[in-house]
Predict the structure of Aminopeptidase S.
Amino acid sequence: MPLTWRKGMRSAIVAACTTLALAMAGVLPAGPAQAAAPPDISLANVKAHLTQLQSIATANGGNRAHGRPGYLASANYVRDQLNAAGFTTTLQSFTYNGATGYNVIADWPGGDPNDILMIGAHLDSVTAGPGINDNGSGSASILETALEVSRQALQPAKHLRFAWWGAEELGLRGSQFYVNNLPAAERARIKGYLNFDMVGSPNAGYFVYDGDNSDGTGAGPGPAGSAALERTIQDYFTSIGVPTRGTDFDGRSDYGPFIAVGIPAGGTFTGAEGIKSSAQATLWGGTAGQAFDVCYHRSCDTTANINDTALNRNADAIAYAVWTIATAVPPVVVWQDTFETATGWTVNPGGTDTATLGLWERGDPEATTSSGAKQLGTTVSGTNDLVTGRLAGAAAGDYDLDGGVTSIQSPPITLPTGTLNLSFSWYLAHGSNASSADYLRVRVVGSTTTTVLNQAGAATNRNGAWGSTTASLNAFAGQTVRILIDAADASGASLVEAGVDDVRITR
Ligand code: PHI
Ligand code: ZN
């Protein structure tokens, strides 16, 4: 970044950053949380780290910039604290602009190595000043959070990895180097990245990265899972009664390289050179018509350039997110059927079915097409699924569902108590000769009956495509239930096909 800000520069940078290709694939984080109680992070401790970073800058020409001695001293300060607290640390070096830069990477031993939550902040300043808000604030907040993980001897379900990035101010150089050098297998293990860049701005706003693109501005949504990270952070601010607003994934901080490879991201931001509007001043207090951080990238970004309230709230939000996400108990599969083997499903359990052809069966389905895919020859997992007549026949209308209703019932399933979810994959396909009387329906039958899927046909062409449905089974906790699936071609001869696969109940 140039040292002086010129009119129009931000929009130019935003445009450039927004054109970065953002891979949108990703893996959702584990489901419902049952987290360990998040701690209150000590503001005094966070500020003590800022005092140290200020002293480092003061002793090294007034900055902590890439390639300057104040940067390496900052990296060593952070790393020493983490080593003493039991983290496994790495000083990852890279070269940029003819100077050596460093990322500090700190792994907390334990947790699922295939389910990593990363938390990062850039540790470099610009050359103009000590960079205490930008980004001593994020660096100190995640450092104190990591030290609290150690004090509590936290045993999270997820593996925790903290990172302090070098050369962010020169274009995300450290985080880009880290992501570029991750082996593909290791990249796939990182299920989420939380970024904290400027979290103590003197004229603070409370911004949360807009993972779901609910604001509809700038870049699109983050990779799948980003919305859940945004919600978790928002939950904390809601709990303390502080309203938040979204901030676009414009690519101006170290989440950029992560979302570009499909890793879900989230985080907070209290504002930089942008001007606080009067609406924002009404919402949060502070001064309308003034920058969130008047000392952004200036020599006055010192320990005097910190809003303690904003810093305190954000440090606590970081700990809340880390504890909530990393200690969430991953859902346990209570029961599942992938239909690879016979487990005791019963066709026509009530003896009242009227279908004459295409009755439910378990098997290896043959594909049919008629104005597009109808019966799917592929399953969601393995070779077999539940299908309305697995054979294709000579024409799509052979072995499709005809004549009325076909039903199939699972064996009895004894549910434990607790928070239960049912999920399954399904499709309904029909020709334009079908009608709204045709359907695919899935019900759960216990002491009461709940319909979890009721997909009606229509007099239009609908191609077969696997989708999935999730429903709560909390109302059936502790009961023995059966899953009842029926499909109907109820409006005279028309082309109707249906399939179900991977029925799973998790707690
Ligand atoms: N976060 C700094 C530096 C920066 C600008 C980094 C643009 C990346 C990009 I793309 C800033 O916003 O000024
Ligand atoms: Zn900056």
